[in-house]
Amino acid sequence: MTFLSVRLVMAVFHCLSDKQQGYLFTFITMCIWGAFGLMARMNAYWHIQIWDVLLLRFGIAAAVLLPILWWKKDYQFLFDFKLLILALVGSIGYCIFVYNGFFYAPVAHGVVFLNGTFPLFAALIGYIMLRSPIDRQTGIGLSIIVMTLLLMTISIIIGDGYFGRGDLMFIASGLCWGLFSVLLRKWSFSAWHIMCGVAIWSAVIYSLIYAIFITPAFHTATPTHLAIQGIFHGIFVVIIATLTYAEAVAKIGIFKAGSIANLAPFIASIIAVPLLGEMLNTTLVMGLIGMAIGALQPWRWFIGR
């Protein structure tokens, strides 16, 4: 019965046009990315140590991917030192900051200080490293982001908000992801090789760090919660979302795919209010609106760019 259901789903999928498939892949990516902030925030509620979650994430992803690479006889690319750098910056560095950010700060803070600053860092680093020009539309979006950050900072200073350790972590993770994105443009790898190389090298490096410096605290959480976090972060985030986003970009383009998928964190910040009991004050609402406009640049939809 399950096999017939899978065949039926695949038959329906192949009846869709490339554009329709692209939007479907984008929707799947958006669901996973949206759930990421919520699931990462749940670590604080489920009393799961961040370092243990990272071990589960990297270990499970590597355990799934290594046998596939061995079966495909496609593993020589792993010895390219560039993948090691990508793993350190875009996986280990990014994850350490972003998971700690969600542990100490609400989901909405992550949307503002991570999703807002990432395009800013990516544009600046791209200009410095690759001499990539910043076009007029991107410049307008970045200006909106900068103004939003300044207004939020002023609001925080006068006491209508709270800026803490988690927010600093989000900004650091935005810097890591911006650098990672620029390096991906600089170094040409396929989506499959990036995913496998980054996941496996992350597992190797982080396992050594964990074994030497970290005291496991799995006993503070229930096995069910650990299994949920491990499967979600190790398989859905690292493997499935990477592949669906790559397919979405290939079928409908990076701007449309990125714009739609990047709506996920903003939706997650709203869901976190009833689900996790988090609050949205005036500062955060204005920050969300400003970051959404600056990062997504919705006017591009109307000018065909």
UniProtKB/TrEMBL annotation:
InterPro entries: EamA_dom, EmrE-like. The chain crosses the membrane at residues 21-42, 48-71, 83-105, 111-130, 142-162, 168-184, 191-214, 226-246, 258-277, 283-303. Keywords: Membrane, Transmembrane, Transmembrane helix. Residues 22-153, 165-296 form the EamA domain. This is EamA-like transporter family protein.
